[in-house]
Amino acid sequence: MELSPHLKARMGRRQLAHAYLVAGPGRRELADTLAAAWVCTGPTPPCGVCSGCRKAAQGIHPDILRADPQGEGLKAEAVRALRADAYIRPNEAPKKVYLLEHSELLGLSGQNILLKLIEEGPAYACFLFLTPQPEALLPTIRSRCETLWAPGPEEERAAAEVQEQGRELARLILTGADPLERLPFLIALEKREREEIQGILETAAAQLIAQLPQRPDLLPVLDRLAPIRAACGYNISPGHLSGWIAAAL
Fold first, then answer.
1. In the β-sheet with 19-23, what is the strand arrangement from edge to edge?
2. Residue 5: helix, strand or coil by DSSP?
3. Closest CA relative to residue 95, chosen from 14, 29, 27, 6
4. Residue, of 88 and 150, whose pLDDT is higher
5. 3-state DSSP call for residue 121?
6. What is the pLDDT of residues 26-76, one digit of tens each?
7. Buried (b) or exposed (e) across 166-185, using 16+ Cβ within 10 A?
8. What is the DSSP letter of 110?
9. What are phi and psi of 127, to 5 degrees?
10. Which ranges of 13-88 would DSSP assign to H, the alpha helix?
């Protein structure tokens, strides 16, 4: 799974939050990466080679505890036992990690117990609330966690295609491609969703901005593309957006 640069940097600096709500199809993979980063003892977590990372990958790390892996719903008694365990220091890692794999099944009493633990628990205790339904958790739980969306393979593939088309748009602009050369790109653009076109324009703009010191002539093009990016938030058809981009080039 490709991590965002921001999350990757926080992992590397060991500056992760102590509680995350992880949603999306790839939530288990992302949660496993976060857990490994917390127990990693290498120079840049998760290093993948230290004892902590190897044990995490094998599912045998004593400081990574999976709560309710079968999705049966934790009872209040089990949550109280988890709370008591959280006050026992880690066996060997810098942190002790609790993965609540089906947190949407937690009852109100269990969530309130965990809320107090998140707020007042020991500094070494870390929590991962995995769920396909974040709204099933109390607002107070959600507000005390950082929320991460973990895309599945199809979403990652679509995002990669958007990035590629953004780089292609930048290339067409930078090389001064003629209208005939731009035509296949603009036709393909009509099959995209508005949100995807916005991502394509943002990627292209970032590429062009990086070239401004050598190519100040790109500034008018960026100015013409800016309102198109803003218009992607409105109910405008991809065909109209494609035509607007063609006129801006």
1. 64-67, 96-100, 125-130, 19-23, 146-149
2. helix
3. 14
4. 88
5. coil
6. 899 999 999 999 999 999 999 999 999 999 999 999 999 999 877 788 888
7. bebbbebbeeeeeeeebeeb
8. H
9. -135, 140
10. 27-39, 51-58, 76-86
